[in-house]
Design brief:
Beta-Lactamase, binds methionine sulfoxide
Amino acid sequence: MAEDLFIDDTLSKEEKYQALLPQIEALVAGETDLIANLANVMAALKQTFGFFWVGVYLVKEDQLVLGPFQGPVACTRIPFSRGVCGACYTRRETIVVPDVEAFPGHIACSSASKSEIVVPVLKDGEVKMVLDVDSDRLNDFDAVDRKFLEQLMKLAENWF
Ligand code: SME
């Protein structure tokens, strides 16, 4: 049974992540369906932080394919060799991009996107998907986002 999120708007970003994580854990507890859980997690992130775009790209054969997201319509397929998402897949580590125009090969699904963080989800040594968060402001992601989004994406390993 889904319930509303309770996140005080006056909290700092770090405090919001701290308040959100246990609520997301409760939201996905007992549900193992990948798409259902991803859909709710993307909605929870959008609702809490108001991200410009937040969503996932799932590894399917030799490409990344768009999965559940919140925000404007986006590119559906990304080759492993392209974009921040492709670089995240290849490097198998989180990439924080303070200015997308300075990232070689960045794919602009929206010209409003200015900075970005992409976090991989690995299972049994293989990248299964990447979480992509875009901001319409420069330099909007830092070590706090990295820490908590990586922690959050650990949950997703159980859904593959
Ligand atoms: N900017 C990403 C593409 C995905 S969209 O931003 C939603 C990239 O360079 O991989």
